[in-house]
Design a protein that fits this description.
The structure holds two protein chains of two kinds. By secondary structure, chain A is α+β, with helices and mostly antiparallel strands. Chain A contains four helices and nine strands. In chain A, strands 5, 6, 7, 8 and 9 form a five-stranded antiparallel beta sheet that branches. In chain A, strands 2-3-1-4 form a four-stranded antiparallel beta sheet, with helices on one face. Chain B is of the alpha/beta class. In chain B, helix 3 runs parallel beside helix 5, helix 11 (234-243) packs parallel to helix 14 (335-344) and helix 16 (379-389) crosses helix 17 (402-410). Classes of the chains: A alpha+beta, B alpha/beta. Chain B: InterPro entries: Acetolactate_synth_lsu, AHAS_TPP, DHS-like_NAD/FAD-binding_dom, THDP-binding, Thiamin_PyroP_enz_cen_dom, Thiamin_PyroP_enz_TPP-bd_dom, TPP-bd_CS, TPP_enz. Chain B: Pathway: Amino-acid biosynthesis; L-valine biosynthesis; L-valine from pyruvate: step 1/4; Amino-acid biosynthesis; L-isoleucine biosynthesis; L-isoleucine from 2-oxobutanoate: step 1/4.
């Protein structure tokens, strides 16, 4: 199952290496990882999308993350009310004739064209991974020349529905 | 030479180098012994050491691995952090086995490595190695000092991290230009680690749950691990288990946390544990693990481990709880504090008379056994004799393998902190340098190093230290001219194909010892053993004793690989 984990970390040298090294050593599969600064200087946030087999594994993963000296807080936000976004840049083979067709195609995705040349067009799309994936598969028949994704970044919505509070019981410690 | 006996880094105004500052910081944190080896990148530090009148010893090993294993031995028997100093590149990489060993066995070490100067880091400079990269997965934490102003904080932080929570090794990599930098400012020593706040007090709710479970248990058993030793909770453990008459199984590294000769002790559990201990783990209905990590050598096949038990696990490291064995009562806490809480808790006496009788019967029916031979010395018998002559009071160190298991089985430990062995990593060559470290940590006490002929050869260069420092360590080599445990597995599981496990060529250990100026003895027959032991332990100084043990002797009983804890072989003759 896919889980979205966020980790608030002290922005010290080697912290990303520590986290990814630990995940690799303990055979956790990282689908994506994104890191950036937060509102607090010196504190960064990592968003990890991981593929794990069961709850025991995800519990072990969060505990191992928490154990890292530089990691301040770890949350499994998968089952919470969250906002999660990733950004994809897609360079598609295109002629001036095709360009209009492609622009029409991407409009419902609220994607935008950010670069254009005589034989290609570069599109930027932001959203949930399902949305970016959907657009990518729509564009695939035109010939994707280059694709880059940031990975998901996410946090909790300002308001959490009451039912979600019981979630805490999942953790034995 | 400085005039003051103990200068404080915050008070001196004369410019000093980063290396001088480092020495002062080590004095401040109370270091009494450093195990190290010089080299290019640590020249400024060694120079500062030479010029200083710091009140600590520097012990020069003959290989960096000797330094770090010694530091582990020191840490194990004193509870204080072991301090290591080595140079960059090969100096640092020679420490890797020891760092990993310390990580696996949770030993507090602070390791200083030299590094090439900042401006050449990353250029593949002479004796450069990526120490941070290499040691990240094998340390509790590591640092590279980028500015001299960070040094005091980093040193203080490192000692704090190494010694608190679940102890572990911390590496500080110091570029040469940092140790050469002159400065007379005073720097920040305070630190704040928001991500490192180990939980030491148990959650009262979990203590209530555990108390209730204990009151209801009919077949309770306590598994006592090294966590009890780290938290110095041996008195509390004894009081607790005696109060409720709970049988105790020790892990390999937990030996000594509960007196082995106490009637409640079932001995060691695991692959070569006692039948009684393992069956208790198999049959119990409540398993209280205190400070052990359910290592695979203890549990055997997890499917058959404590299948009917409610598992309670007291550990300071939450990540250990539920890692291998599903746990119903998790108690994240320091073992001492958890035991104190349990002692205060209202618990009704478990009704486990039948269980106690059953275990007692097992103990009587299935004791450890061994055979004797006319040709060579029985290793088990030899260890019993060593136990006798030392009253079981010696500090004992081992490597890994057959001699280790026999020592664990037959050198019954009644006192804590007298046992240093490489458990998790299982490092050959550990025991002898660890004995040296132990002797530095506890001068005046009897230290016995027990190794096989294979493992001893991995760090025998450290013999020089016995002579140099006049360390009266008794070095016992259990010589079967084989890598005994490898040979045993080849005999049992590879149809006796002894691939590269027979050491037909060995040095003359007596002459070897003599070449270092140390007394050497060779003992080939059981008839010579008692007189030889008298001599060895009466002798005022180090002795290397080469005991020729039965070559094809096996360690029994045993849980074969992949088997359950209830499927021991070799339980009886």
């Amino acid at each position: 199952m896919k889980r979205i984990i966020t980790a608030t970390v002290q922005n010290r040298s080697g912290v990303l290496n520590r986290v990814t090294g630990m995940l690799q050593q303990r055979q956790f599969n990282i689908e994506s990882i994104s890191v950036g600064e937060t509102e607090t200087p010196g504190i960064s946030k990592m968003t990890l999308v991981v593929e794990v087999s069961d709850h025991q594994k995800i519990e072990q993963l969060t505990k191992q993350l928490n154990k890292q000296i530089d990691v301040i807080k770890v949350s499994d936000i998968t089952d919470k009310a969250i906002v999660a976004r990733e950004l994809a840049l897609i360079k598609v083979a295109s002629t001036p004739q095709l360009s209009n067709e492609i622009q029409g195609l991407i409009t419902p995705f609220r994607a935008s064209v950010i670069d254009i040349s005589k034989d290609s067009i570069t599109i930027q799309v932001t959203g949930k991974p399902e949305k970016t994936d959907a657009l990518i598969s729509l564009l695939r028949p035109y010939g994707i020349k280059e694709l880059a994704k940031t990975g998901v970044t996410a946090f909790l919505r300002g308001h959490q529905p009451q039912a979600q509070v019981t979630e805490i019981n999942h953790f034995t410690v | 030479m400085k005039a003051e006996a103990k200068p404080s880094p915050q008070m001196t105004s004369k410019p000093k180098t980063g290396a001088d500052l480092l020495i002062e910081l080590l004095v401040e944190v109370g270091v009494d012994t450093i195990f190290g080896y010089p080299g290019g990148a640590v020249l400024p530090i060694y120079d500062a050491l030479y010029r200083s009148n710091a009140p600590f010893k520097h012990v020069l090993s003959r290989h960096e691995q000797g330094s770090i294993f010694a530091a582990e031995g020191y840490a194990r028997v004193t509870g204080k952090p072991g301090v290591v100093l080595a140079t960059s590149g090969p100096g640092a990489t020679n420490l890797i086995t020891g760092i990993t060993d310390a990580k696996m066995d949770s030993l507090p070490l602070v390791i200083f490595t030299g590094q090439v100067a900042n401006h050449v880091i990353g250029t593949d400079a002479f004796q450069e190695s990526d120490v941070l990269g290499i040691t990240t997965p094998i340390t509790k934490y590591n640092y590279q000092v980028k500015k001299i102003s960070d040094l005091p904080r980093v040193v203080n932080e490192a000692f704090h991290i190494a010694t608190t929570g679940r102890p572990g090794p911390v590496v500080i990599d110091i570029p040469k230009n940092i140790s050469e930098t002159l400065s007379n400012s005073s720097f920040e020593t305070d630190f704040y680690l928001p991500g490192y706040q180990p939980t030491t007090k148990p959650n009262p709710l979990q203590i209530v749950k555990l108390s209730e479970a204990l009151g209801k248990a009919k077949k309770p058993v306590v598994l006592a691990g090294a966590g009890i030793l780290f938290s110095k909770a041996t008195d509390e453990l004894k009081e607790f288990v005696e109060k409720y008459e709970l049988p105790v199984v020790n892990t390999l590294l937990g030996l000594g946390s509960f007196p082995g000769s106490n009637p409640l002790s079932l001995g060691m559990g695991g692959m070569h544990g006692s039948y009684t201990a393992n069956m208790a783990l198999y049959e119990c209905d409540l398993l209280i693990n205190i400070g052990a990590r359910f290592d695979d050598r203890l549990t055997g096949n997890l499917k058959h481990f404590a299948p009917n038990a409610k598992v309670a696990h007291i550990d300071i490291d939450p990540a250990e709880i539920g890692k291998n064995v599903p746990t119903e009562i998790p108690v994240v806490a320091d073992a001492k504090k958890a035991l104190q809480a349990l002692l205060k808790s209202k618990i009704s006496m478990p009704k486990h008379q039948e269980w106690k009788e059953h275990l007692q019967q097992n103990k009587e029916k299935y004791p450890l056994w061994n055979e004797r031979s006319d040709e060579a010395i029985s290793p088990q018998w030899l260890l019993k004799k060593i136990h006798e002559i030392t009253n079981g009071d010696a500090i004992v160190t081992t490597d890994v393998g057959q001699h280790q298991m026999w020592t664990a089985q037959y050198y019954t430990l009644d006192k804590p902190h007298n046992w240093a062995s490489s458990g998790g990593l299982g490092s050959m060559g550990f025991g002898f340098p660890a004995a040296i470290g132990a002797q530095f940590g506890r001068p005046g006490e009897l230290v016995v190093s027990i190794s096989g002929d294979g493992g001893f050869q991995m760090n025998m260069q450290e013999l020089m230290l016995l002579k140099q420092w006049n360390l009266p360590i008794k070095v016992i080599i259990m010589n079967n001219s084989a890598l005994g445990m490898v040979r045993q597995w080849q005999e049992s599981f590879y149809d006796e194909r002894y691939s590269e496990s027979l050491l037909d060529m060995n040095p003359d250990f007596v002459k070897l010892a003599e070449s270092y100026g140390i007394r050497g003895m060779k003992i080939e027959q059981e008839s010579e053993v008692e007189a030889a032991l008298e001599e060895i332990f009466a002798y005022d100084g180090p002795v290397v004793a080469d005991f020729r043990i039965i070559k094809f002797e096996k360690v029994y009983p045993m849980i074969a690989p992949g088997k359950g804890i209830h499927e021991m072989i070799g339980v009886t003759k």
